[in-house]
Each structure stands twice: as structure tokens, then as C-alpha cells.
Amino acid sequence: MLLKRFEAKTLPKALELVRAECGDDALVVETRPTRTGFLVVAARPDAARPEPVRQRDQAGAPPLLSRWTRGFQPFADHATSFGLSNKVLRAVERALLGTRVDLSRAGDPALPGLATSVLAALVHTAPEVEAADAQRFRTLALVGPTGVGKTTTLAKLAGRARSRGERIAIVTLDTYRVAAVEQLRAFADLMDVPFAVAFTATDLRRLLHEHRDCDRVFVDTTGRSPRDRDAMPVLEGNLRAGGCASLLCLAAGTRARDCEVVFEAYEPLGIDAVCLTKWDETTAPGEALAAVVERGLPLSHLCIGQEVPADILTAEAEPLARAVFGLDRTEVTA
Predict the structure, then answer these.
(1) Residues 1-24, buried b or exposed e (16+ Cβ, 10 A)?
(2) Beta strands 312-314 and 27-33, pairing class
């Protein structure tokens, strides 16, 4: 896989050149403005990865060998401990093989920065979830399985919006748990913002119409097992009736296979972005992160604790990539 440079007067034009040359699945490594327009560095993800250097033991027989090139091995080891999937790591290594870095040995000084850039290019983020002018996210429903922290995440996002001076309202569809209603009601009272309970899709439409002058309306939903086939159509009908964008909350410690079950269950809703919750409660958040990357879903936030509204971060691709490869001494912070 060889990296190529594409330059044009505008970013859309440069991306058109990338698609024409490398296809719709091109791996974009870097985009940046130049004096005359924009530069995009990208690659076609179809080149075969060379076999790693084969070594032999003292008897001349090949031992159990690493699947990675020598230079990439330390990065792959740390990322694997982090939980990142081999599929994502192979994509990163293939891209690096098309660059000038020397992967036949460890220690190339250019490798950390370039590996970070390549992985960061694979992580799509969604800062527009909190953008003041993003009408798509004006009405935001938080969805996800039971126990992932949807209500707490909603409170954090609502608190951030309030601190930005936005006029907000909170609506809950979660009538299954009385405690959830009272928890949100208390939080809404604390912030002095409107709060209401919707029992039906008609209720939700009416309440959203009543709060049409608000800058943002947050909608809490009932947590259900992704295998509950009866609950999903009801939730889908409610959210479509309200024209809500969907923010899927997924615990960062969720195993890869369970992530796939969750995505398949909630896909009919239209997942507009993903928030990885309980990041502080796992030592291997890479499985959930890789599942998001492999699905091509945008990542909006990370929740790193229970404190409202402080313990939530806007997802940024480069710090995440550095954390995956162990290039920062500290954990991801604000």
C-alpha cells in the first residue's frame, strides 16, 4: 500500500481526486490546508502485506512467530493489550509499509508519529454532536442497552449545553424505571430547565413541539437487551415520530462479539454517533473502540467517571491513537 498526495483548491475537490484514484474505501492519513488549497494524503487499501521476517530456533526449525513486522511489533503488542483488533492493526501496518519508515527493525524515529496519524485517520469523530449550528442533533435521543449509563451521559451533555448558554429541555421515554425519571427530574430542577415524561410517540411529538424554541432537547430512553426484539420496533417508532438523532451509548469494556450484537440491534434506529461510556472502568477499551472503527461509525464522546458534567470528553482521534499505542504516559484526559 503506497501513500499518495492529492492537492486541490478545495477539500471536497481533493477528496474527489482521492476517490477517483483510490476508491471509496481509501484510507485517508492526513488532510491539511496549504497556501494554494488543501493537501490530502491517502492510500488504496488493497495491497497485500508482506510476510514478516522468519526466524529459526537453535535447531533450525521455525518457532512460534509474530504476525507483525519487527518495527511494528512493539506498537501491535501494546495495542493488543489495549484490546484493539487485529483487523484494525493490519490496516495500520499495511499503510505503514507504503511509507519511508523502516519496519524491518525497531526504533525508526518516524514510526510513532506516522503510526499515530494512520490510526487516527481510521477513527471518525463527531464533534458536530455539540455544535450550536448542527440542526441534525438539536433533538438528541440517547439509546443503548441496560446499565451503560445513558441517563448519566444525558445529564453530562445537558450540563455542558447549559454551561454554553443554550436553552435546553429534557424529555424521558424511560417509564420502565421510576428511579430514572426521578433522577432526571432532580437534575432538571437543579439546572432550572423544563422536564417532561413521554409515554407514547404522540406525547413525544407534542412535547418536542412545545419546546421548539429550545436550542437543544435531550431525550432519555429505556435500556433494553439488544436481544429484546419486541422493544426495538417500539423505540424506533418513538424516535422516528420525534425526528430524533440517535446517540448510542456503549460501555467501553464491552467485548467485540457483544458490540456486534448491540450494533445489529440498534442499526434500524440509525446510529448517528457513538459514546463510549465507563472508559475508566476497563483496562481494555480497545475492543469497543475497534468495533466502532470497523463499523465506520462516528465516535462523539468518552465518559471517564460519574461526576456530572465534568467526566465526559469530546472524542479526539489523535489522543486516542496515542493512547492505543502507549505513546502517552498519562491516560486520555480533557
Answers:
(1) bebbebebeeeeebbebbeeebee
(2) unpaired
Distance CA 16, CA 28 (A): 12
User: What strands lie across the sheet with 38-43, from one edge to the other?
Assistant: 3-8, 38-43, 27-33
Q: What is the percent of the chain with per-residue pLDDT over 90, rounded to a whole number?
A: 68
- Give me 26's grid cell: 481509501
For the chain, list the strands marked E by DSSP.
3-8, 27-33, 38-43, 139-143, 168-172, 195-197, 216-220, 245-251, 273-277, 299-303, 312-314
Does an H or E element contain 265, and which?
helix 256-266
Paired sense of beta strands 245-251 and 273-277, if any = parallel
> What's the rounded Cα separation, in Å, for the pair 143 and 232?
11
**Which residues have C-beta within 8 Å of that of residue 286, sequence separation ≥ 6?**
79, 82, 83, 84, 85, 324
Asked whether the beta carbons of 168 and 216 are under 8 A apart, the reply is yes
What is the distance of C-alpha 29 from the center of its chain? 17
How many whole angstroms separate alpha carbon 157 and alpha carbon 165?
13
**Burial classification of residue 33, based on how many CB atoms lie within 10 Å of its CB (0-12 exposed, 13-18 middle, 19 or more buried):** exposed
Q: Would you state the cell numbers that stand for residue 258, as one nine-digit string?
A: 457483544
Q: What confidence tens digit (pLDDT) does each residue in 34-54 have?
A: 778 877 877 776 543 444 444
Q: Which helix (H) or strand (E) holds 288?
A: helix 286-295
Section 174-202 average pLDDT:
90
First to last CA, the chain: 35
Residue 211 buriedness (CB in 10 A; 0-12 / 13-18 / 19+): buried
Q: Residue 287 corresponds to which cell in the numbers above?
A: 475492543
